[in-house]
Amino acid sequence: MVIANPPLAEPVIDPGGVTIKPPFEMGVANLIGGAAGAMAGSAATGSVMGKRLQDKNEWFKKVVSYYHLYDQWLSIRQQGKSLVAYFEKNNYKTVAIYGMKELGERLYDELKDSDVAVKYFIDKNAGELYADVDILTPDDELEPVDAIVVTATYYFDDIEETLSEKVEYPIVSLEDIIYEV
Hints:
With 181 residues, the protein is an alpha/beta fold. It contains 5 helices and 7 strands. It has helices spanning 23-78, 84-89, 102-111, 156-164, 174-180; strands at 12-13, 19-20, 94-98, 117-122, 134-136, 147-150, 171-173. It has a 5-stranded parallel sheet with strand order 5-4-3-6-7, sandwiched between helices. Strand 6 (147-150), helix 4 and strand 7 (171-173) form a beta-alpha-beta unit.
């Protein structure tokens, strides 16, 4: 004996005009909707997690590059040398330092008692910072100096591109200075 599949029930319209679907159609719609929602949720979570992982990886690369820079700078100091030699060799008597984080502060400390005058700092967060010299934003009018030293070496290419549209004097990376001394 063969039993045929029972026919699907027809939708019913209740007295208020609302269509009530048969239970089978509601189950398929719910199943498809649930699967679509789960896939969208997984994709969104994966996208957020992927972005977080990418951000952490970028941060890690930056920290490692700064670690190597500090290590080389310390090696120079242990040999009794100073970065001042680079500035003297290139006849840079006045400089601006781009970046007020640790590398910028250490460079300022190294130059402040030398014949190289730090005229000002440049930092995007100038309004929130304090120093012994003026702190300008990249958008401010920048007083001419012999060179601008970028201590945010990980972002040097972008910073150089922005500044080169404003100034006609050398823009050098602290990394290049350290590895040249």
